[in-house]
Amino acid sequence: MDTAHHLLGIEGLATPRIEHLLELARQFQIAPPPRSLAGKRLLLLFYEASTRTRTSFEVAARRLGAETVSVTAGASSIEKGESLLDTVYTLRAMAVDGIVVRHSSSGAPHLVACHVDVPVVNAGDGMHEHPTQALLDAFTILRHRPSIEGLTVAIIGDILHSRVARSNLLLLSRLGAHVRLCGPRTLLPPEFAAFSDRVSLTYDLEEALAGADVVMVLRIQMERMRESFFPSEAEYVARYSVTSERLRAARPDALVMHPGPMIRGVEISADVADSPQSVIREQVENGVLIRMAVLRELLGETA
Ligand code: NCD
């Protein structure tokens, strides 16, 4: 199967396909979808913790009439050390029509895709990509702005470990946004500037927020750190926490986003998270629409 039959990352995803997925999600938002995936079975293979992503794939599949089989680490032979491919071969015997994979190793969904003859969707692979998150973020912005072209998007926090940051900077810069990445030096390697000439780096939060149209805040991914990347949480909060006072540097109507899970009082203050500018809950709703679009495109008869 070629890459057009999977969704493994934003890199390599053709712009017309991105536009098609956003349009499909828009249609699903307007009209309740027909059960066009009735009789299909989707395998959700989650090797890492997930709340929003797993449940939204599940809800999306069911709204389209498909059934889901969920395999999560901790409740399966994954825990006993079975290799990823052995698990996939076992589950393939259950005649699934598509596989959604989340894994702590970058490239795991690509490996699965090489060994199965059904579509594979990357639901987050290590520090690499999280394409459906970036698509739902773009979709969310487009529900509030006519176009992404020309917007300034500030992505703040643990950029280094974030697959959300990587997929978003690839997608939003492709769609014409200027992306400002901001975080402590240890969590923002200079190489990130090389992704696109529409991407810039700053270690200064105020500079990142100045005049921004969209402020995307990220969690510190402690689980991916084997060493200390900043002196203390208090120090991080003092320099990088997005508070209402600091947010005043952005445009007054700037959208505040967070992929979740958010740690209130650390990367974002509670009042910012709950402010009228926040579209954080809407991101979750839009996640279902985008995942419906992705599943319809990959598993539908006329896909
Ligand atoms: C993110 C992830 O898992 O990459 N969450 C999500 O999918 N909504 C971000 C995070 O874990 O901080």
What does this protein structure show overall?
Helix content is 36%, strand content 15%. It is of the alpha/beta class and 303 residues long. The protein has two domains: 3-129 and 284-301, Aspartate/ornithine carbamoyltransferase (Rossmann fold); 144-278, Rossmann fold (3-Layer(aba) Sandwich). Strands 7-6-5-8-9 form a five-stranded parallel sheet. Strands 2-1-3-4 form a four-stranded parallel sheet, with helices on both faces. β1 (41-46), α2 (52-63) and β2 (67-72) form a beta-alpha-beta unit. α2 crosses α11 (280-299), α5 (131-142) packs across α6 and α5 packs across α11. The protein is globular. 45% of the residues are buried. It binds N-carbamoyl-L-aspartate. The site of N-carbamoyl-L-aspartate has 11 residues, from α2 and α6. Residues 52-53, 124, 130, 133, 163-164, 219, 221, 259-260 line the site of N-carbamoyl-L-aspartate.
Can you tag this structure with a few keywords?
four-stranded parallel sheet, binds N-carbamoyl-L-aspartate, 9 strands, 11 helices, five-stranded parallel sheet, Rossmann fold, single chain, globular, 2 domains, 303 residues, alpha/beta
Assigned CATH superfamily of the largest domain:
Aspartate/ornithine carbamoyltransferase
DSSP helix fraction: 25-40%
Show unreliable segments.
none
Structural class: alpha/beta
